[in-house]
UniProtKB/TrEMBL annotation:
Catalytic activity reported: ATP + protein L-histidine = ADP + protein N-phospho-L-histidine
Enzymatic class: transferase
Molecular function GO labels: kinase activity
CDD domains reported for this sequence: HATPase_UhpB-NarQ-NarX-like (cd16917)
EC number of this enzyme: 2.7.13.3
Annotated organism of origin: Streptomyces lavendulocolor
Protein name: histidine kinase
Coiled coil (residue ranges): 171-209
SUPFAM superfamilies associated with the record: ATPase domain of HSP90 chaperone/DNA topoisomerase II/histidine kinase
UniProt keyword tRNA-binding, yes or no: no
Alphabetically ordered keywords of this record: ATP-binding, Coiled coil, Kinase, Membrane, Nucleotide-binding, Phosphoprotein, Transferase, Transmembrane, Transmembrane helix, Two-component regulatory system
Length: 446
């Protein structure tokens, strides 16, 4: 964090105790001014001693001691001005009076105190000057008129007091303005740093969510297609010698499944490679950066990053491909019944794609964990929402287990997808010993 000049000066004061100067040149300047003021007052002390009937050394020492007070002008400006006012009748300390008034006006002392002390100094100089000019005119046997003495006193008093006060007020205002601008610059720098940190956090969250989304897409494509391919391959092995015609059909189905899986994977990888024709080693793909920025900017009403962002992959299976999905499972030997209720209508791309993936994940789980079980797929078009359910009965003990591995992330990914759209996802065992997966999605995605 950037430290302002005021903070540096305060730190310097704390470190040096009563040595109040923030910089060395300030100390040199004040000591020099104090020395000049001491010499001036010492010289003027000779005349003061003659007028007061004191020994000359006493007047010199008094003037030297009084003039040296100017050294503390930054620490105690009020005291310096009071001393200069006090010695005004002795006709000494002119430099100390002007420098003291300038320092007082430029300091943080309240304006009322500045006005009172400046008025006192002006009155003291006016009275002393009036008396001195009047005495000089009387001794010179010269009578210019009553107005001359007053005019000269006013001019001299204003000339010695007004310029230092006005210049000090200007310097003080300028110093405060610069300090305010410096503090604002520091504040803006801190805000920019916080915004940069927040943007980095959002970008990191967006990258994490993008990786999660890609993992879900890969799981949806690979798990279902490959599961069907494994099931068909097992059936092909079982009937290869007994029923060659059926084996040929199963082999064709396996080929179709593989081509469909490769096509969907190629589409997703093509989206990831878009805009990154010449990648630099160790760099982030441009497409991924664009999606991360879009996801970071699209913060939903509930605070989730990317919750309101559109799905980067616009192409994908929707509800109109649900019959084909069910048919693929039937061809793999599964007994599947599709029940559709309500008036069929279209929804947003994200809603239809998520509904399709829920049904796909449910069928994939049946292939993995409930071989031979009967399955009922329900799709309900309701007012303002669409509901889907995949329910299977108990596992048929006579059916051979396909031995498909499971990572346990399919249902977790479906729950994240559904809740991200403002829907409800429920999964669990049934009373009959089976398992069901159901979800309800709003017609307009949140």
């Amino acid at each position: 964090m950037t430290t302002t000049g005021a903070h540096q000066e305060a730190a310097g004061r704390t470190a040096r105790g009563w040595w109040w100067w923030g910089r060395r040149r300030s100390a040199v300047l004040d000591v020099t001014l104090g020395a000049v003021s001491a010499v001036e007052c010492a010289a003027e002390g000779v005349g003061f001693a003659d007028r007061a009937g004191l020994p000359v050394p006493v007047g010199v020492l008094f003037g030297f001691a009084v003039g040296a007070v100017l050294v503390v002008r930054r620490r105690w400006p009020v005291a310096v001005v009071l001393v200069s006012i006090a010695i005004t009748p002795a006709e000494m300390g002119y430099l100390m009076g002007m420098v003291g008034l300038y320092t007082l006006a430029a300091s943080e002392v309240p304006r009322r105190i500045i006005a009172v002390l400046a008025g006192m100094s002006l009155a003291a100089v006016l009275i002393v000057t009036f008396v001195r000019v009047r005495q000089d005119i009387a001794s010179a046997d010269f009578d210019p008129g009553p107005w001359y003495v007053l005019l000269m006193a006013v001019i001299l008093s204003l000339g010695m007091n007004a310029p230092p006060v006005l210049f000090g007020l200007y310097i003080g205002a300028r110093r405060r303005l610069l300090e305010s601008l410096r503090e604002r610059a520091d504040s803006l720098e801190q805000e920019l740093s916080l915004l940069a940190d927040r943007a980095e956090q959002r970008a990191q969250m967006a990258r994490t969510e993008e990786r999660t989304r890609i993992a879900r897409e890969m799981h949806d494509v690979v798990a279902h297609r490959v599961s069907l391919m494994v099931v068909h391959a097992a059936a092909l092995q079982a009937v290869a010698l007994k029923d060659p015609q059926k084996a040929v059909r199963n082999a064709a189905l396996v080929g179709d499944m593989g081509r469909q899986a490769l096509t969907e994977l190629r589409e997703m990888l093509g989206v990831l490679r878009a805009g990154d024709a010449a990648p630099v080693r160790g760099s982030v793909p441009l497409a991924a950066v664009g999606r991360a920025a879009a996801a970071a900017a699209a913060v939903g009403a509930d605070g989730r990053v990317g919750a309101g962002a559109p799905d980067p992959v616009d192409d994908g299976p929707c509800l109109d491909a649900l019959e084909e999905l069910v048919e693929q499972s039937r061809q793999a030997g599964m007994v599947v019944e599709l029940r559709v209720s309500g008036e069929t209508r279209s929804y947003g791309a994200r809603v239809e794609r998520t509904a399709y993936r829920v049904v796909q994940e449910g069928l994939t789980n049946v292939h993995k964990h409930a071989a031979g079980a009967k399955v009922v797929v329900r799709l309900a078009h309701r007012e303002g929402e669409v509901a889907m359910q995949v329910e299977n009965g108990p596992t048929d003990g006579s059916a051979a287990d396909a031995g498909l591995p499971s990572g346990g992330n399919g249902l977790v990914g479906m729950r994240e997808r559904v809740t991200a759209l403002g829907g409800v996802f429920v999964s669990g065992p049934t009373d009959e010993g089976g398992f069901k997966v159901s979800a309800v999605l709003p017609a307009a995605a949140v």
